[in-house]
Specification:
The chain is of the alpha/beta class.
């Protein structure tokens, strides 16, 4: 009797934020059949899991792709970005931005891309000499020695964006758009090159993810119902967040914004060079 080698379980990373719900809900709810094991976590954790080969497909930061492009293929026409105010990547400050020179900014360890964007904006856009410390934002804000300014991302940014002690707010995606005239891409979907080259994919995972996006935008009331409970945004704000605040495509303009970000990172010495955008195909 010949033994049959079992197919490996394909694992797909899912950032644990509201902004990717329109991509993943149809997969998680069984509305779109698939064979992936979904693994949820913050961006930095998924970046590390992809880098270690523990995931085969994942939403990941565009900074991670820039650091290790040889390990990944990009999923076509899929991203998390913004053409204006994104609402969920914010610098919140006790003082006006131009008074932050010499200040220390608290940053989250959960994000690489947003921190890189903040560093570029402070250095090249606003010409401010600031320092950074990494820590947990919400406990620090509630402590007896709260920071002068902090970077908040994801659901935490949505909760803290109207904090009375931090009346000065910089939406990083809006600042990028004002600076460059282009969209900013925070997250991408990537496929492991090793898994692809080993022939582990019998179908295009990007097609499944794009189908999830299409289903959700055709059934946005369902997505709004799911996110309304316990969310700091009201229904109208949520609808704006999903349809206007965020962009889920990776078309020509989004790719131009992404490449400009990579070029600026390379010029600042944050990455070795701007990587080419290489896409997965079967």
């Amino acid at each position: 009797m010949t033994s049959v080698t079992p197919q490996p379980v394909l694992r797909m990373g899912r950032i644990g934020y509201l902004n990717v719900l329109p991509i993943y809900h149809p997969l998680e709810a069984g509305l779109l059949p698939h064979d992936f094991e979904l693994v949820s976590g913050p961006p930095a954790l998924l970046n590390n899991m992809m880098a270690r080969g523990e995931l085969h497909v994942s939403s990941t930061s565009c900074f991670e792709y820039a650091c290790r492009p040889e390990r990944y293929y990009l999923v076509e026409d899929l991203s998390i970005g913004s053409r204006g105010p994104v609402m969920s990547v914010l610098l919140l400050s006790r003082v006006p931005l131009d008074q932050l020179n010499g200040a220390e900014i608290l940053i989250s360890g959960e994000t690489h891309t947003s921190v890189a964007l903040l560093r570029l904006l402070m250095r090249d856009r606003y010409k401010l000499d600031v320092s950074y410390t990494t820590g947990q934002v919400t406990p620090a804000v509630r402590s007896s020695n709260p920071p002068a300014a902090f970077l908040a991302i994801g659901d935490e940014a949505l909760r803290l964006r109207n904090h009375p002690d931090y009346p000065y707010r910089l939406d990083l995606a809006e600042a990028w758009r004002d600076w460059t005239g282009l969209p900013f891409i925070f997250g991408l979907w990537v496929v492991s090159r090793a898994a692809a080259d080993a022939g582990l994919f019998t179908s295009d995972p990007g097609e499944l993810l794009r189908q999830g996006r299409s289903w959700s935008f055709a059934n946005m009331d369902v997505i709004l119902d799911l996110t309304a409970h316990g969310c700091p945004l009201n229904r109208d704000e949520l609808a704006f967040y999903y349809s206007k605040g965020l962009v889920y495509s990776l078309g020509e303009e989004e790719q131009r914004g992404l490449m400009l970000f990579y070029e600026k990172l390379a010029a600042a010495g944050m990455i070795p060079s701007a990587p080419p955008l290489e896409f997965f195909s079967l």
